Amino acid sequence: MGIVSPDQLEKMAQVARKYKVETLKITTGQHLKMLGANPDDLPLIMEELGGSLPSAPAHAKIGMHNVQACAGSPLCSFAKGDTLEMGKKIQNVFADLAVPGKVKVAVSGCAFNCCEGYVRDLGLFAKKSGWTLIFGGNAAGRPRIGDVIADKLSDEAVIELVGKCLGYYCDNAKKGERSGHLVARLGVDSLLQAIK
Fold first, then answer.
1. What is the pTM of this model?
2. What is the number of other CB atoms lying within 10 angstroms of the CB of residue 112?
3. 44 and 73 both lie in a single domain
4. What is the DSSP letter of 144?
5. Does the structure show a pLDDT above 70 at 77?
6. Could you say which of 83, 86, 165, 186 has the lowest number of CB atoms within 10 Å?
7. Does residue 104 sit within a domain?
8. Distance, first Cα to last Cα, the chain
9. Whole-angstrom Cα distance, residue 135 to residue 120?
10. Could you tell me if 182 and 136 are in contact, meaning their C-beta atoms sit under 8 angstroms apart?
11. What is the pLDDT of residues 53-71, one digit of tens each?
């Protein structure tokens, strides 16, 4: 979820300087790009950084991607929910689920929706009354605003409903089809009926 310690950042900088890497970029997909690195040095760089960076779940183009989460409570004064804890729960429960296409997840701590949950396959944002779950968003070539599936959800209810939404997706999507395209094709009422 993009969390690194000062020691990890210092290690990245030391390794970048050692191998004359011109620019570091942390991507929205939570990868570290070392722009300008000599390709021959990459195995050595990976070895040196291997023990100092948090390990993210590996993913291909198809499958569950890293959960994107804002700082949430108690780190943000606007946040109404613990996004990092919720993100960990979702990642731990669903990371190994075999899904038909790419699944991007965003967890925001308030209705400002800093992680853009409306344009992710699964989006969550917190209010005082609980979590709001959005499904079927997409920011890619055919953008789609996701549908609000439920609100006022507890943490436990979120995990249960995310499981139902992903189950529907697995049962009905074509190989490689994103959730937004599935919902556009079959309609949100079909999803809502299936997850009741």
1. 0.80
2. 12
3. no
4. B
5. yes
6. 186
7. yes
8. 30
9. 7
10. yes
11. 555 444 455 677 778 999 9
